[in-house]
Amino acid sequence: MNQRVTRGRQISPGFLRNPRFETTSPSEREILSVILREGRISRMGVTDRVSVGQQSVSRIVSSLADRGAIIVGESTSNGRRGPPSVELSLAPDFAYSIGLSIMADAISVSMLDFAGNMRFTRTIMPKRMAREEVISAVSSIITDTLQDTGIERYRLFGLGVGISGFFVSDDHRVNAPDLLEDWALIDIESELSQYFGLPVWVENDGNVAAVGESMVGVGRWAPSFAYLYIATGFGGGVIVDGKLFRGRIGNAGEYAGVLPPNGYPHPNLQLLRKLVVEHDKKSFRNVSEMLEEFNVEWKGVGIWLEKVLPSLELVISASAAILDVDAIVLGGRLPRSLAEQIIPKVEIYNTSRRNIPRPVPVIVAAEASGDATALGAAALPLQESFFS
Question: Whole-model pTM?
Answer without folding.
Answer: 0.82
